[in-house]
Design a protein that fits this description.
alpha+beta, about 40% helix, six-stranded mixed β-sheet, 19 strands
């Protein structure tokens, strides 16, 4: 098949592509951006994609055949192409660009600089506004131990925000302050301004300024000793010992004035593991681990290029070091250096660690990356193979022209004909995309097939909306279990992306209702099937008999996962609505506030149990007297 088609139909004509630097985008037939890349010479770079299809790498061939067009933007310089490529990858989230998975399992030390009186905490949350992070640390006890030592030298706040507010309002020190564990203004020993200065010293020490503090404390200890103030000298001595205890955990690996980031990388054809060593003051201050899934065949230099863009794209000037150590030089190293210099405000060099202690540290980072890649492959290789097989099997079983890159599955859920809701879950490349899940409320309906028809008509309407229209999605919510931040506006809503396959939970009646919606909406080009629970049969529209997939089929397993996930999400949304409904009903009872409503539901465990409870049983709850209990009972039983 590949040899019969020398290249794709949308290949630009000779001479159309300029030789300038720029950024290019491949789009599918619906306009979705599939891949973003940059080039010093657009014509030379893009010609690689339009070689005979049988000569392309399998994953590159898959991308160019999925695409329907290519476009490019010329920029003045290679540095501009770096910036534009990074912006577009963040904006469009192209499925064929490399995917990063940050290792979020390690704890960090965070100083909440955005607070009135900053405190130091241990957290895995990297999104605290205004916070300064150090780490990550391999073990929780390691970061707690470091904090215990440092607050002896830099006594900053450790108490919770609630304790701080209570102490500042009452004038009574917080409990940690009473036992000498909190040095904030809530301890009543320092002012807010004095505490801020101590916090600045804490941050400066953690950022690599340990030599200055060691020298200062040594000089003060000697001065106090010479003045025979032995009590003060002992305090300075203890602080020096605390600093020394912290420094011993962070061995000096490079020269004391070295501020660098070192990237150890291990890769194979499909993925790469990255170990990012943060070196400040010659010491390794933290290690950041991530894995990269490579959707296209790229060289080592290109991978380093994209890893550095990812690491520093949103970095502040303080987070960009003066030296970046990499295992191999990217092709556009000079442009990357200029790009990093703009962010730092000072010169930045990119170097390959070839000899000496830097090379030894690179070996350590690479070894860690190799072990991480091995673990990643152990966990994901079988999944990757299974996903590829599932999509191929599904394409063959349903007679599709292409493997379904995007699949949407719908399920309808109700409670005795009331509180009817429907769910839409999205799988891309065989994996769930929870940030794109949606739930729908169905106000009026006759049965499940009517509900399904209504929901699909509402969903399919977004495929025909002009891009410039308001992109808010009425009566649709994202999955509350998703990791991503909820976003309600975007230039190109993902809700408008066309699926290659629609799956409905049900048999022939549900499939025919969905097929009717596709006809009414004018989108019969979208493939459709349904999966019936009883015998796990796969139904196609217009067919009298189902497709029977083998029980061991990866395609059947994928359809089951889609169906079960849609059912789970629909039930989750319905429960939230029921809880919200009963709370609204209870809120109508005079004298029953939010706290008492929550207490009632928590005490009885369910709405059914609360409705069955007698006024006397309701009155047993603290804060609910006989009169209020009677009012609650009457409202529920008559409502």
């Amino acid at each position: 098949m590949a040899r019969s088609t020398p290249t794709v139909a949308y290949k630009p004509k000779p001479g159309e592509i300029p030789t300038n630097p720029g950024v290019y985008r491949f789009r599918d037939r619906d306009g979705r951006v599939l891949y973003v890349g940059k080039a010093k010479n657009l014509r030379a770079r893009l010609s690689n994609y339009f070689a005979p299809l049988h000569t392309l790498h399998e994953r590159t061939r898959r991308m160019v055949t999925t695409a329907a067009s290519v476009e490019w933007t010329v920029v003045p310089s290679d540095v501009d192409s770096l910036q534009l490529e990074y912006m577009w990858i963040k904006e469009f989230d192209p499925p064929f660009n490399v995917r990063y998975r940050d290792d979020k399992s390690y704890p960090y030390m965070a100083i909440t600089l955005g607070d009135e009186a900053p405190r130091v905490i241990v957290t895995r949350n990297r999104r605290i506004a205004g916070a300064k992070y150090f780490g990550p640390y391999p073990k929780v006890w390691a970061v707690h131990d470091t904090i215990d030592q440092l607050i002896k030298v830099f006594p900053i706040r450790t108490c919770s925000d609630a304790s701080y507010k209570k102490a500042m309002a009452s004038g009574r020190p917080c409990f940690p302050g009473q036992i000498g564990r909190c040095g904030g203004p809530c301890s009543m020993k320092v002012t807010i301004e004095e505490h801020r200065a101590i916090v600045d010293d804490f941050v400066a020490f953690m950022a690599g300024g340990d030599q200055r503090f060691t020298k200062q404390l040594t000089a003060r200890m000697r001065e106090a000793s010479a003045a025979m103030d032995y009590e003060a000298a002992a305090i300075y001595r203890d602080r020096l010992q605390s600093i020394d205890a912290v420094l011993k955990r962070s061995a000096l690996v490079l020269a004391e004035d070295t501020d660098a980031d070192l990237f150890g990388i291990a890769e194979d054809e499909l993925a790469a593991a990255v170990q990012h060593f943060v070196i400040r003051g010659g010491r390794v201050r933290g290690v950041r681990a991530s894995t990269v899934e490579k959707e296209l065949d790229i060289s080592g230099g290109e991978l380093v290029d994209q890893i550095l863009q990812r690491a520093y794209g949103d970095a502040s000037a303080a987070d960009v070091p003066k030296q970046v150590l990499v295992p191999s030089m990217p092709d556009d190293a000079e442009e990357l250096e200029a790009w990093l210099q703009e962010r730092r405000g000072k010169s930045v060099t990119i170097q390959v660690a070839q000899r000496g202690r830097k090379a030894e540290l690179m070996k350590t980072a690479t070894l860690n990356a190799q072990q991480a890649l091995m673990l990643h492959k152990t966990r994901r290789t079988s999944d990757y193979v299974a996903r590829t097989q599932a999509l191929t099997d599904l394409q063959e079983a349903l007679g599709l022209s292409e493997a379904p890159l995007r699949i949407e599955c719908f399920d309808v859920s109700h409670l005795g004909g009331t509180n009817v809701v429907a769910s839409m879950v999205v799988f891309e490349d065989g994996l769930p995309r929870k940030d794109q899940y949606r739930s729908f409320g169905v106000a009026e309906t006759t049965d499940d097939t009517d509900s399904l028809h209504q929901v699909l008509m509402r969903r399919l309407a977004y495929l025909d909306r002009p891009e410039e229209e308001d992109d808010l999605i009425p009566d649709a919510v994202q999955d509350p279990t998703a990791d991503a931040t909820v976003v309600t506006t975007r230039k190109k809503p993902r809700f408008a992306y066309r699926p290659q396959l629609l799956v409905v939970d049900g048999g022939k009646p549900q499939v025919e209702a969905a097929a009717r919606a596709l006809r009414d909406a004018g989108h019969e080009e979208i493939a459709l099937c349904g999966i019936a629970k009883r015998l796990e049969e796969v139904w196609m529209p217009g067919e009298d008999f189902p497709v029977i997939l083998p029980r061991t089929s990866e395609a059947l397993y994928l359809l089951q996962r889609l169906r079960d996930e849609a059912h789970r999400f629909a039930i989750t949304h319905q429960r939230k609505r029921r809880r919200r409904d009963i709370q609204s009903v209870l809120a109508e009872v005079p004298g029953l506030g939010e706290n008492r409503i929550r207490a009632l539901l928590r005490h009885f465990g369910s709405v059914t149990a609360l409705k069955k409870a007698t006024p006397d049983e309701i009155a047993e709850l603290p804060g609910v007297g006989p009169k209020l209990a009677a009012a609650v009972h009457a409202h529920l039983t008559t409502g």
